[in-house]
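TOKENISE THE FOLD
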Amino acid sequence: MMLGFEWAFAQGKVLTEMAEKNPDIVLLSQDIGSFRPFSKRFPERFFDVGISEANLIGVAAGLAHAGKLPFVMAMAPFVSMRAFEQLRTDCGYNRNSVKIIAPCSGLEGGYWGPTHHAVEDLALLRMIPGMTVLCPADPAEASRAVRAAAEVDGPVYIRLGYIQPIEGYPEAFEVGRAVVIREGSDVAILATGASVTQAIAAHDLLKGQGISARVLNMHTIKPIDREAIGAAAAEIGPIVTVEEHFVAGGLGGAVAEVLAELGAGRLRRLGLEDQFIVEVASYPDILKLAGLDAPSIAAAARSMLD
């Protein structure tokens, strides 16, 4: 089982705890399992609509319109594209508070090939008015993101990838507020989701080479933390963004927009260039092929200083 799915299913316990206190919480699934313990504890509040993403979001939006608080579990590459019209119109335009938990994001699909890579979803979702886009970096933060999503007025997209526990990271989760994971003064590495772990490893590599790198966990893509980006530009200057996404429209695009408006900083965006990853390989190998592993990130940071 891929880690994104493990942590996605782990949210069943979190949602069950939340549903004990909030009778309006319902859960909808895209044919990816019974999602216990929620479905066992609240069978009348669990709906599996099958592999029909547009219908899934439409039903969830209808439940939200009727006063429920629907959480949706669906694979990122499919819910973001097959149901985009429903996400835009039923959720965004109508301000229906649907909360989407989306595993299998970025390049996590690995062996399944480019059809299962979600590398456009951040660009698609962040352009929808009123949509909040979260991309947690470790399992505990994923649970905090789910709880925080319930308090957001409007639709929320929670992107779950190949995240791993980050040692010593007990930070409280605040929507729209980036977290400094490692301090540094020579270059800033702004990463999101599973890329945060690689950015931390890159920080350690750079430290051994006498380079001080600040690492920021950009767990919220929208609303983006303009203050943290501005501080990195003003206090450090060179900035590298890292994401399992096309360089156009995702974290790198959002940071570029802020820097352009501020007229500050220098930026290099790491992500997929204008091409698909067609190789069928393991997740670590695909990261290396895409230039998103720790050595590649460290090399990009060094190039900013050169």
Remarks:
- The chain has a mean pLDDT of 94.
- The domain at 3-159 is CATH 3.40.50.970 (Rossmann fold).
- Residues 71 and 284 are 31 Å apart (CA to CA).
